[in-house]
Amino acid sequence: MRKEVPEKVSQTEIVFQVEEIEPILSPPNMKVAPWAPMYCDLKQKDGSKKTMLIRSIEREEIPLVLPYIKRYMDVDRDLYDVVGARVYAELLALWRNRIKDEYFLIGQVDGALAGIANGRLLNEKINISLHTMAFMRGMNAGAVLYYAKCVYCFETLNQEEFWATYESYNGWKRWGIGMALPTYPYPDVQHELGGARVFYLTRKYWDASIRDYTKQLAGTELLPDPSPELLARNKQLIIPDDILV
Length: 245
Ligand SMILES: CC(C)(COP(=O)(O)OP(=O)(O)OC[C@H]1O[C@@H](n2cnc3c(N)ncnc32)[C@H](O)[C@@H]1OP(=O)(O)O)[C@@H](O)C(=O)NCCC(=O)NCCS
Known about the structure:
By secondary structure, this protein is of the alpha+beta class. About 30% of the residues lie in helices and about 20% in strands.
């Protein structure tokens, strides 16, 4: 837009360095405790167990994970395409500093990427759940990864509410129904993912019931302080050759 200037000016042109513009376009992050790695044993359908480590993605791992997620954009089944496209955008935004306070957790089994779970902090009180994807199916990896976000919200950050929504039937079944979550009045309150319903979890409800969710649903427990051996085994991130749906 242009408008007539109200007075004589000594410079009719003001030039900016892009480094000066960047702080305006890239949101400053809050100073919060990072996710401390946790782990769990997951039962396979054949009865055997796998140990999954859940840790934050390292910045240098983002370019490895992006092309893998991108492949899910072509899966026109079970809403993988929508979820894949959105997770890709959220991870890219993290890489390019274009998202506020995102956290991005990865699940690993013997180094291999088993799933992801991400979210972002709206403010000190509210944690927005973004997405969860399981790349190893049938062992509740996704269920526990999602639960990890709630642990981060209520146990690490001491926040008051966790706001989720679900694009897929599997997600809704696992957590909307699985955690018996209430919703805010709709459409008065909308989730940032497509303006969908907000399913919310309060601290009171977490304390009263949901803390036991992984024990009930996945028959496992998310445990702190993984051994140095487990951390070492998962230091190198292995991207699976194939996508599993
Ligand atoms: C939602 C999701 C994270 C849940 O992961 P999970 O807890 O590890 O659970 P799984 O995907 O392994 O299994 C979910 C159910 O689908 C069944 N299932 C469907 N396809 C399956 C497959 N190819 N292999 C194994 N199980 C499959 C499972 O038996 C299980 O049934 P159950 O609820 O009776 O146990 C996962 O299904 C996923 O990544 N979906 C695509 C992305 C998505 O929808 N994310 C959530 C957005 S709201």
